[in-house]
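User: Sequence in, structure out. Go.
Assistant: Echoing your sequence, followed by the structure tokens.
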Amino acid sequence: MPISIRSMRIGLISDTHVPEATDTLWPQVFDAFDGVDCIFHGGDVHEFTLLDQLQEIAPVYCARGNGEDGSGGRPIQPQDERVRYVWNHVYDGVRIGLTHYIPVDQSTPDNYSLKPWIDRYFGGRAPDVIVFGDTHVETVRKIDGILCVNPGSPTYPHNYDTQYGTIAFLDLVEGHATASVWLIVDGGIVPFDWDAVPPWKLRR
């Protein structure tokens, strides 16, 4: 059911891989999400106890990833009312879809079309925003007029070893959506610098 609001902030996170990557998620993430209206998780949680922790901050909606279905020999996770293969939300006229996998990143060709994925996941009705995960690569770009947002991974950025990665926010103001990606650092989070060499490429 559509929700009428004037402004809203959604915390975005994906591919946490807890406790595979780390026993517990970085505390900076919980601090950063304090005050958000809800949290979207793009899947590959892997254990749903993390969703319990996030839900102490705000309502949680999670895409079911391949990791939850036993990929790589991981334990298959149970059904959970917070977890679906596809979520559809409407906030103040903005249609937001959440799923685990959409093949989009910063290198996707400009002539690429989302139509097959819209047909597959959203019954042919295109959302205004699609939040997704899987690749561990932070992405904010428009394709076919749809704002596509991948928050990356806070624990395995770009599939590197365990280290600080990224989260994101989706801000809705009077029916307009914008997204921002943030890098986790020792003291909290800082805006992600798209032009800088990211920390995971500097580590040896």
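User: And one key feature?
Assistant: The CA atoms of residues 9 and 35 lie 8 Å apart.
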